[in-house]
Amino acid sequence: MSYKQSSLSVTKNKDKWSIGRKIETLLKKYDTHLKKPVGDMREQFDKFFDVTNKTGQWLCAEDKKFYQIQIQSRGKTGYATTKNASQSTIHPSKQKIAGKVNDKLEQKDSFEESSNDSSDNEDSQSSSDDSEATQSSIESFDQSTHLKQSQQSTFSAVSLVQSGKLSVRRAAIVSTILNKSGVKITSPQSGVYRAVYREASKVMKTLMNTLCNSSWCLHFDGKIIKKKEHQVVLLRNEVKEVRLAVLVLPDGKATTIASAIQKKLDDYNLWAAIKMIVSDTTNVNTGSKSGVVVRLQKLFVQHGESAPVFIGCQHHILDRVLRHVCDALLGDSTESPNMNYPFVSKILKDYEMLKKDFESKAKKCTPNLKEQEVGWRDDMKFLHHLICVFKHFKNFQQMPKVNFKALPGISNARWNSRAIFALLAFILLPDERKNLQKLCEFICGQWSGAWFSDHYYRTAKYEFLLYAVNEYPKALRCFQTHWSQSPSSIHTQRSNVCAERAIKVLQDIAPLCHSSEKLNLRFIFANKSL
Q1: Are 221 and 213 contacting, i.e. CB atoms less than 8 angstroms apart?
Q2: Which of these, 223, 295, 332, 518, has the minimum number of CB atoms within 10 Å of its CB?
Q3: Which parts of 376-515 fold into alpha helices (H)?
Q4: Which helix or strand (DSSP H or E) is residue 358 part of?
Q5: What's the domain range around 330?
Q6: Are 416 and 322 in contact, with CB atoms under 8 Å apart?
Q7: 270 and 163, same structural domain?
Q8: Is the pLDDT reported for residue 3 higher than 60?
Q9: Is residue 203's pLDDT more than 50?
């Protein structure tokens, strides 16, 4: 009895050792297959155990049927009863998949029943092949349909961010609301977030491959956001405008800006493509020895290219000219801290009261102006409207109806805001009209004609402005120094307004991005809306 027990234990130990050896061999082959896949893995491992032996004998018909269903569904069918589970017991993320699997099985069963009824005399093997082919076609159709729906829903969500100018979080909220209304759009915030930056990366790669094939004018401008210097870099030609990059810099020095722009030109291989540079005429940009433009022109020469022609932004030059004319006519210092003229301070203090007083005195027969809407910002549209009001008053000695707007901000960077205040003072303060008459005539004459022009190269425009500023020495010197008479290398606007619009885009998207890399991608992604 003891001998039988000992022999039985030896047999069990041998069986355990045999199974363990087989498992070790299986794992080694599996690791080898992962590193260097050879053929079909199932064909290599089909005889290690009885359950993996294709040519073995099935001991249970139910297991055999279940195996065939798993092969046909590519492992998507689990071991369960024939009764479908309730949708309430399935996780929401799996409910759509479960419904599709059930539909496929129903389609398969109905197809097999119809095929059996119509082809009783056919060979069973050919019937099985047809069933498998049909099942495969159904699965491929469902997969392609699901892929198209997924791509379409992601595209719609990305469009909400790009065209609707929504944050990723708000786009996800809108998508959820639309989903509840029956519109299928990807709603998870993480999915929309990844899709936005995935599309932005595609746009950047496309630009890197194509921009070097055209000729461009380089634009750049800066803005301090969250106590950091941000520079926007753009390209423009006769056909289109491209927002190239946002540069987040430690400071606004000329060396820092030029080095950052140099890196972007290297990344996009644009040294041979840049033919012209347009920027504001600040000291940092236009310094004769160490300005940003001079540094960039030297870098172009070092790369074996001719130095691009520099054109100062005409809007910025007109701002500087207006400041010199205002100081010459009004005779007051506008240096900090006394930046405002007396009439500006009065308008700022009593604007609402002055408007009500003006409107109460207006006659019922006050004419409405018919004017063309001009300008790219609300303050520029307001300036154009006030110019039309002044011209009407000068021609007919009657003040037309004025559509008052909010007052613009006051800063040395935008002296055109003083033009708005001067015209408002002429309209609302009759006692100031004599002092402001000549300044308003200058603003509404050649200055406004140049300000609201198309800003392409024209020699006649230079002659008109030269005549207008001839009696103001400082304005004349400023105009002759910065207003370039050189023809444009590219037929495009000699203004940096495109960079100003890009800064507005930057201000909108900056709060949504937590790194300079993400900010740059979102800025580039904005090209899809141009």
Answers
A1: no
A2: 332
A3: 378-396, 416-428, 433-442, 448-451, 459-468, 473-482, 497-509
A4: helix 342-361
A5: 316-482
A6: yes
A7: no
A8: no
A9: yes
